[in-house]
Amino acid sequence: MKNMVIVLTGVTVVAGALLGYVNELTKEPIAQANAKALSDAIAIVVPGFDNNPAEAPETIELEGVTYKIYKATKGGEFIGAAVESSANGFGGALNVLVGFDKEGNIIDYSLLSHAETPGLGSKAADWFKKGGKGDITGMNPGQKALVVNKDGGQIDAITASTITTRAFLKAVNNAYAAYSGQNVDGSSGATQQVSETAADDPKAAKAQCEGTQDCCGQACDSAACKAACGGKCDPANCDKADCKKAECPKQDCKNKK
């Protein structure tokens, strides 16, 4: 019995050492492969740059979530950015990289990873691309939030997968909120985070709006508010279920002026 314990202990130690060695051996190649995949994805969603966006990503935090933003420049001039975003789909996290031009229009996207079934995942990778049934290219979530048609929106859902579609569109809307939530200076690269105080305090929000309509306690020009409320600080939009649930929990501003 004693010899068996010694043998089993020895086997465990050796197995652990081998696993550790294999992990160290593969860690660097995996990291390099992931870096290349990201660089390739950035080149797809924001083509035409001559810098290296992946080299120095910027981060912005909105409502406790951190987003990575990869700025693209050409000849030193800002031309757009790729934003990493995610949302929970049917099977788990769905991670996307969304490319925006200077005006906030969607150039393209790349599905980085997902936990959906293989069929749904492969459909999401192409469904919303140019020429696809749910084509979102050229759209600006700041002018009108992307919403699936079954919820009264303008985007066709993936066949038999409204949940995956909702998750994808939420990730894209959130990516836009992160992108527009900072003022990007093409020459200096300076960024400015959206005011959290205004988002938490209705009075501060109204002050930031300089007397105009405040959106459910958030600043009228809050990117998150715009993304949820269809791009407009309209009291009618604030009464939408998605708006109140996702971005405007403070109060219903239907009757505010």
What does this protein structure show overall?
Its cofactor is FMN. The protein has helices at residues 2-45, 118-127, 162-180, 196-200, 202-208, 223-228, 235-238, 241-246; strands at 58-62, 65-74, 77-88, 93-101, 106-113. Among the domains are: 53-180; 196-246, no CATH class. The termini are far apart. Residues 182-222 and 234-257 have low confidence and may be disordered. The longest helix has 44 residues, at 2-45. The radius of gyration is 22 Å and the shape is globular. It is an alpha+beta fold and 257 residues long. A hairpin with a 4-residue loop joins strand 4 and strand 5 (106-113). A 5-stranded antiparallel β-sheet has the order 1-2-3-4-5, with helices on both faces.
